[in-house]
Every structure is written in C-alpha cells, then in structure tokens.
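Posting this for the archive.
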Amino acid sequence: MGNKLRFGIMGTARIARNSMIPGIIKSERCEVAAIASRNKEKAAEVAKQFNIQTYYGSYEELLDDPEIDAVYIPLPNHLHKPWTIKAIKAGKHVLCEKPAALSEVDVRQMVDAAREHKVVFAEAFMYRYHPKHARVRELIDNGEIGEIRSIHGSFTSNFAADKGNVRYSKEMGGGSIYDVGCYPISAARMIYGQEPCAITAYASYSAEHDNVDMMAHGLLEFDHGLGLTFECGMWTYSKCSLEISGSEGRIELPSAFGWERMEDQAQILIHTAKGTREERLGAHNHFALQVDAMAAAVMDGVPLPFSPEDAMYNMRVIDACLESVRTSKRVVIGQT
C-alpha cells in the first residue's frame, strides 16, 4: 500500500459515476485504481471518462488485483452481501452502498466476515461525514434549542417513469424504504444516540413497478417519549430535509442528506424566539470526506466514526419497518 488508499470500483452504477468516483478523485488520501463491470466495454468507457488506468470485464478480476486495497460496491441491493463477503475473503477493505444488505442477518454475516479477516467494512452513508451534522450536534449540546422533543425527516424523489430502474425490482431489493427511508432512520439514531424500541409504518405500492413500496410513512419510537416521523418516496416531488424540534427552538436542514455545491448556500436554519439564523459551512464533498475517513481507518488505525455494527443496527430497524408495513401492526424492535 502506498501513501493513498487504492480503490477498485465494482460496477458502473450512476452513483459511482456521478458521485463516488468524483469524490474519491477529490479526496486527499484515496485514488481510483481500477473499475470493473460485467460489460468490459462499459468499464472501458467509464475508465476513459475518469482517466482510470485499469479496467476489467468481471468483478472477480478486480478482486484478484493485488494493487487494489479497497473496493466500493454500488451494485443492486441484493448483490451487496455476496460481493462484500467475496471482497472481504480476497483481503479487500469494503465500502458498501446503503442499505448494506436486505436483512439484519445478512449484515451480521458481513460484519462477522470483516472481523474474521481483519479488514475495514463500512456502509456508505456519506451524509454523516458532512461537517453540518457535527455542527448540529454542537448546537444541540450547547442547548440552542433546549431539550430535543422530536425529529421529522423527508427523503423523496420522482423517477417513476424509469420503470426499468433496479429500485423498482422486488427481487433486487427495491422499494423506497430500502432506498431512501434508511436515511432518516439512520439520522434519528445518530442524533438521539440510542436505538429505537418500536415502529409503525405503512406504504403504497404500484403494480407497474413490481409492487415495491413506492411511498412510505413511519413513526419510530425511542425511549423517554422521543420519536421520528418520516416519509420516503420514489414517485413524489423531491425533498431531502430534516427537522429537529426542541423545547426552545427548531433546527432545520433543507438538504439533510445532500451536499451544497455553492459556498453561500444556507445549510442549517435555527429557529428560536430570537428569530431565524442561517449558518453556512461552505461547500464540502461528503463523498470525499467519507473515503478519507476510511483511509484513516485502514492506514492509521483510526476507528471509523460509525462502527460496522451500526449497519447491522440500522438494518434491524428497516427489517421491523418492512414487517410493520406487511402486517399493518406496530412492531417492537429487539435490542439483542
């Protein structure tokens, strides 16, 4: 390993092309060393676009490359577990797209494999690395909004016309809860600093989209009367916000899970009896920050801010959410 963490990109998904590869290129401690696709021509095309020196026509070839330190996996959800475990057994560190897999049991096996083979495994919730979320924690700890009472999160978009999208395939782990509902769930767990105890959720479906959940609403219960209400959707006008309400004020993040590309965009709004205050932290690429944190974990032994088990706990909540949707009942979430 040189002075940079050398990533291999497993697939040419849109998020890899539009977000992760540019983020790695912009990072301080990482580089894209290779890309693989089942279609070698497609791999070659993306390699040329980003000046990636090596490309492969299979994922196995990528894992066999001794020059690759870590792999990023942006494959469809149902492929996360098998390819993560194959990568781990090949001695590669793994950054896997969210959701890490399709059940807590699957993620537990991935985490166990990483522990056994002594490699770093991380779920790619990039938003958590943006400094605005550390700032929100400071505002809460400083008593800016008093005692936290509730959180509301929204993450929706509309690309329903693209019926061939993998997000609309039940077999591939499609659906709005897996795709975007996982974000406000993870955010509430992060902000409250505890695991939820129960969830009630319901969803709407579309026969034209393989009957995956197209829109879902949920109430996630935490101890001490705290809660998260959330909405997530894949055929609804775009929204990406988080609101944290307290006894003395409210914190609003207009682009909670995205990153602002302009220096002068308001990233945090604080509403109190004194009025509304905007805070701007500048433009930060949270994809770059995420991989640099992984490089620190791999190369310096600095623990990741979110443990591999965090992916397992988030998946536990998603499992319960899907069970609530399926049974139309409140589901108690186990803590073991």
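The radius of gyration is 20 Å. The first strand starts at residue 5 and ends at 10.
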